[in-house]
Amino acid sequence: MKKLEIHLADSLKVEGNIIDFRVYDGANFFKILRAAEGSDRKCYGLDTFTGLDMPNAIDNRHPNYNEIKKGQYPAFREATLRNVSTQSNKNFVLLKTNHYNDLESILPHDEQYCFALVDMKQYLPTKKVLNYIWDKITYGGTIYIGNYDEGTQHSEHVAVKEFIKEKWFEVNASRQMIVNGSKEKFIAIKCFPNHNKPENWKNIQPRIDKVTIAMVLKTGGEVYNQNYVNALAKAIKKNVTIDHEVVCLTDNPVGFSSDVDRVIPLTNGWPTWWNKIELFKPGQFTTESVFYLDLDTIIVDNIDKIVSYDGDFSGLRDFYALHSLGSGIMAWKPKKCEQIYMNFIQKSAEVIKAYKEGDQRWIDENKPSIEYIQDIYPNQIISYKRHCVDASGTIQIPEGAKIVCFHGNPRPHSVKNPDIMKYWQP
Q: What percent of the chain clears pLDDT 70, i.e. is strictly above it?
């Protein structure tokens, strides 16, 4: 499945309709109609049908960029309407807009959208569209930016960067990845606008029954040791007040503090991160729910509600590729996830050799279902690199954050900053 369809499917988990702000030849609008078929979502398609606007200085200031011409990329409404009418999903509206100055008047005033496709090619139209959709995007919805390059300083790229910078604590934007030697040409922006947050949004109360909070230590590497286990266990004890048990799966139980309630031996001898698969071994835990944290994680505030997740399976949205699972934080019901382990032991050597993405790809492919944990607790689970360090190198943990993930370098022990050091204490 292509990335556009993946993000469309993810967006359909929340309420709202779908909008494409520049249908052009209708190719992406076709995909939207197919994705929305059978869901009762109305699909809106807009275009000027006269091509691009007169370019401004931002559109043309990049020295290696071909100048945008007024009237480029015209669409033909009748032809586009005729083409999209061939789709079996007829729940769509195709509208002509006056250079995106009339969005409030041509679109329903009380409409909300779970997915918005934005591919405007110019600064001002992109700015207008993003300002408009922010008031209308559903909590948990997605803005998908096509033909985007985060490395450029012209046209729609500038407007998108300004938007992310302004809304940064209410959005989660993907990073453009290199796939098969080529840089992705889109970004996805998950939106959690406070003004559109439903009153009953994932209102998970602290649990009454006991929860296992687990970690895994495979010794012999250059970074992780008992200090990491002890630092995380101490933070858990400080920031979890509900009934819980701190458990560590390890191949060397020496040197743990009393904050670690129980040690479980690793039994399979798998390399590095593959030992996480033992978390899903049948009978490994006695509680009905398990909450897992990578060792390179710091806890900065009470997480009672977060560890009280009560669904079948939850995990991180990868901080760079929002459509993928990150296994640095997971929560699950053991009896619902035993197949992750049982399927793996049947061909562990084959999978370890073939899956360069590691354990998280295997878990993603074998999990029962998923709710991404940042969607449930927006802005409470963040990335150190993405959210705590600005362009000047200044380090500050955002207000409201409760868990900071240090995926990759630097690691918590190497950050000599008081705001970090006080939360990482072996």
A: 98
Crossing angle for the helix pair 77-84 and 27-36, to the nearest 10 degrees: 30
Q: What is the pLDDT of residues 141-194, one digit of tens each?
A: 999 999 888 888 888 999 999 999 999 889 999 987 766 677 788 999 999 999
DSSP class of 277: G
Between helices 359-366 and 338-345, what is the axis angle to 10°? 120
Amino acid at 255: G
CA distance 318 to 23: 30
Q: Which domains does the chain have, with CATH numbers?
A: 3-196 (3.40.50.150), 211-421 (3.90.550.10)
Return phi, psi of residue 382, to 5°: -130, 170
Burial class (CB in 10 A: 0-12, 13-18, 19+), 94: buried
Rg (CA), the chain: 24
- At 35, give phi and psi (nearest 5°): -65, -35
Peptide bond preceding 426 in cis form (omega within 30 of 0): no
CA dihedral 304, 306, 311, 314 (to 10 degrees): -150
As given in the structure block, the two tokens for residue 327 are 């296994």
Give the phi and the psi of residue 49 in degrees, each rounded to 5. 65, 10
Tokens for 277, please give them.
Answer: 């698969």
Q: Is 78 helix (H, G, I), strand (E, B) or coil?
A: helix
Residues with Cβ < 8 Å from 420, sequence gap 6 or more?
298, 384, 395, 397, 412
Confidence category of residue 80, pLDDT binned at 50, 70, 90: confident
Candidates 378, 43, 327, 337; CA nearest to 196 is 378
Which pTM does this prediction carry? 0.86
Task: Report pLDDT for 66.
Answer: 63
For 7, 15, 112, 367, the CA distances from 141, given in Å and listed in that order, are: 10, 8, 10, 23
Give the phi and the psi of residue 248 in degrees, each rounded to 5: -125, 125
Residue in the structure block whose two tokens are 């796939």 = 179
Say whether 187 sits in a helix, a strand or coil: strand
Which residue in this structure is represented by tokens 């060792």? 295
> Which of 281, 282, 309 minimizes the C-alpha distance to 377?
309
If DSSP codes are grouped into helix, strand and coil, which group holds residue 214?
strand
Residues linked to residue 249 through DSSP beta bridges, in sequence order: 216, 264
CA 287, CA 266: separation in Å to the nearest integer?
19
Tokens for 212, please give them: 């296992």
Handedness of CA 8, 146, 180, 221 (dihedral sign): negative
Strands 244-250 and 92-96: unpaired
